[in-house]
């Protein structure tokens, strides 16, 4: 069960690194090449959106059907286990939402980079005429 969260953690780290590399000030040629490479990778990497969405639904379902430990009958160990599971669920929700938002922001950055590149080409054509 923990393997899927480890995979999601690595995906979020990789997405964050790509987002940082896309937004760093680099030479135009390098930035355009890197943005085109990332935009080619974005299509197969779309699996992360349903993967994270499924896990969000799984967390919601488990939260709705979790045994509550709020009465006086619960022992300290049961209460600690309950609180630990709540904290893990909150951490996992943050991971899922972060992965979806980072994917969206990377795709937007690549799209804007392509639009800027096409506008520069149009500008060059008008200047050369």
Automatic annotation (TrEMBL):
Keywords: Endoplasmic reticulum, ER-Golgi transport, Membrane, Protein transport, Transmembrane, Transmembrane helix, Transport. The chain crosses the membrane at residues 40-61. Residues 1-121 form the BAP29/BAP31 transmembrane domain. Its main location: endoplasmic reticulum. The keyword Transport applies. May play a role in anterograde transport of membrane proteins from the endoplasmic reticulum to the Golgi. Belongs to the BCAP29/BCAP31 family. This is Endoplasmic reticulum transmembrane protein. It comes from Sphenostylis stenocarpa.
